[in-house]
Design goal:
With 242 residues, the protein is of the alpha+beta class. The chain folds into two domains: 23-100, Orthogonal Bundle (Arc Repressor Mutant, subunit A); 119-219, Nonspecific Lipid-transfer Protein, Chain A (2-Layer Sandwich). The protein has ten helices and seven strands. The chain has helices spanning 23-31, 36-43, 50-56, 62-74, 96-99, 102-113, 126-136, 185-192, 198-203, 213-219, and strands spanning 78-82, 90-94, 147-153, 156-163, 166-171, 179-182, 208-211. Strands 5-4-3-6-7 form a five-stranded mixed beta sheet. A two-stranded antiparallel ribbon has the order 1-2. A hairpin with a 2-residue loop joins strand 3 (147-153) and strand 4 (156-163). Helix 6 (102-113) packs across helix 7. It is globular. The chain starts with 22 loop residues before the first helix and ends in a 23-residue tail after the last helix. 24% of the residues are buried.
């Protein structure tokens, strides 16, 4: 009797695949195209419409976004579904396997933050900020803290819970949180990573705060960035060419 094949053919075209048995190489086959990982990053905070993804990734074109969504769907990383009334719109959502990628983003983000060429002043999406907060939180500094922090980033709302030395978050109305921060993600990043204070950002009109001021002050020191990697003698940090 002829034996059956034990593996299926890959669900995406193989013209540009590495043809390497290494599982890491196969992962890059699936998500290594430009923008693919950033599309996944945006969906790690929950389902989004096509227009939401474009707004969060201002450098991507509609055609490229369509291609990446189709490729990730074919690979089983995400699915399309239609929300029920009263908002019957199509959204994209990571599969259970797709959500398993978050530790990769957290490890890659911490590694990338050590680059001498990393520029934290560049544009930052809500998903980027929330994932970075979960990545950079110092459990020792957050010991004993049990608090809810709400964020309003334009039309997007998130509720973040700090407890047990970790962070969870969900999309939704942040009203009722111990502290609610309203403003762009970059203005929040300037506080937690750039050395500014929430009070200074509020005075400058960059952010609005409501709630526990003592909690806001404590948040300022909970997210230390890792030390920069050393460079070989005679070299200087630079950003890679596009």
């Amino acid at each position: 009797m002829k034996s059956e094949k034990t593996t299926d053919e890959p669900p995406v075209p193989r013209a540009r695949w590495y043809e390497d048995a290494c599982a890491a190489a196969h992962a890059l086959d699936l998500v290594g195209e430009r923008w693919a990982l950033l599309v996944m990053r945006e969906l790690l905070v929950g389902p989004k419409r096509f227009s939401d993804l474009r707004a969060s990734l201002p450098g991507i074109s509609a055609s490229v976004l369509t291609q990446r969504l189709e490729g990730l769907e074919a690979a089983g990383v995400l699915v399309r579904r239609r929300l029920p009334p009263p908002a019957p719109v199509q959204v994209y959502e990571l599969t259970e396997w797709g959500y398993e990628s978050e530790p990769i983003f957290r490890a890659l983000g911490r590694w990338g933050a050590r680059s001498p060429g990393h520029d934290p002043s560049l544009p930052l999406s809500a998903a980027s900020l929330l994932l970075s907060l979960r990545t950079m939180l110092d459990p020792d500094r957050a010991a004993g803290l049990d608090a809810r922090v709400g964020f309003r980033f334009g039309e997007e709302g998130y509720l973040m819970r700090l407890a047990g030395g970790g962070i969870t978050f969900e999309r939704g109305d942040p009203g009722g949180a111990d502290q609610v921060v309203t403003g762009p993600p970059s203005a929040v990043a300037a506080v937690v990573y750039g050395g500014r204070t929430f009070e200074a950002q509020e005075d400058a009109g960059a952010l609005r705060l409501a709630g526990d001021r003592a909690l806001a002050r404590r948040l300022e020191g909970l997210f230390p960035l890792p030390p920069k990697a050393g460079l070989p003698a005679g070299t200087s940090a630079c950003r890679p060419e596009r």
